[in-house]
Design goal:
Layout: E1 4-7, H1 17-29, E2 36-39, H2 55-69, E3 73-76, H3 87-93, E4 95-97, E5 101-106, E6 109-114, H4 124-133, H5 137-144, H6 147-167, H7 177-187, E7 191-194, E8 201-207, E9 210-216, E10 223-229, E11 234-240
Parallel strand pairs: 1-2, 2-3, 3-4, 6-7, 7-9
Antiparallel strand pairs: 1-10, 5-6, 8-9, 10-11
The structure holds manganese (II) ion (MN).
Length: about 250
């Protein structure tokens, strides 16, 4: 049977070996059977540049690369944590980088895919930062800084974002439904797949008077979350982390 996998929001870091082990199991045992694998952003908890060649980052790249070398196409859309991933790392991992919103044909169904942060328009402060961070000068400027400085900026940014999130209501941190409808209408699709909000679900509503679906991928904080799409079926599943004996 022909199918495609989607994952997002793994937030990989060397401190969370349970997450990376769950990912590696998936890549070694499941991903190779797929037609394609889409990684919809926030694969890493933080990304300060492709020149940050740590053993952990290299290990993640090589696990993906084995899958790509086995003939599975792997596509990557940037998240708000790893938007500085560039061609160098993409090549190492066997990723094809995609634009932030793109329509793919999934077994006959045109499907819009994205990380999803661009749909959370009620978080005005974040959207302002996003425009700067995804613009042309800010990333270029940041990537010119020494690695140690970038690491410090990332650490401070993460602390500030945690503080900021405490003050936001859950409504502000979710997608804006009208923005979802407008975006889907603009791309002329009845299906959208995204991550970012960490609220795995399948939502049914209408766009242009026709049935529409929004599939939200889950994060990998407490378990793996994988979407499997075939011609007639969408399957959003959770995968428990392997617990080592104490
Ligand atoms: Mn995100």
């Amino acid at each position: 049977m022909s199918f495609t996998y989607f994952i997002a929001d793994l937030h990989l870091s060397p401190e969370r070996e349970d997450i990376s082990q769950c990912l590696f199991q998936f890549l070694r045992h499941n991903a190779r059977q797929a037609d394609a694998l889409y990684v919809l952003g926030d694969l890493f908890e933080a990304w300060i540049g492709d020149d940050n060649q740590t053993p952990f980052n290299q290990k993640v790249a090589s696990e993906f690369k084995h899958v790509a070398d086995s003939g599975v196409k792997i596509y990557f859309i940037h998240g708000n944590r790893d938007f500085l991933i560039r061609e160098r790392f993409a090549k190492q991992a066997g990723f094809t980088l995609l634009p932030e919103q793109v329509v793919v044909n999934l077994y006959g169904t045109p499907t819009l895919i994205s990380h999803g942060d661009e749909l959370c328009t009620r978080d005005v402060a974040y959207q302002k930062f996003r425009r700067k961070a995804r613009g042309w000068w800010w990333p270029r400027l940041v990537l010119c800084l020494p690695l140690s400085t970038r690491q410090r900026i990332a650490d401070n940014g993460r602390a500030a974002s945690k503080e900021n999130q405490k003050q936001l209501t859950t409504e502000i941190m979710d997608v804006t439904q009208q923005e979802v409808i407008n975006t889907m209408a603009r791309f002329n699709v009845q299906r959208l797949i995204h991550g970012h909000t960490h609220r795995p679900d399948i939502h049914d509503f209408e766009v242009n008077g026709l049935p529409a679906q929004r599939i939200v991928l889950g994060d990998w904080y407490d378990q793996g979350s994988i979407l499997k799409v075939s011609k007639d079926k969408l399957l959003l599943t959770e995968h428990p982390f392997f617990k080592s004996a104490q």
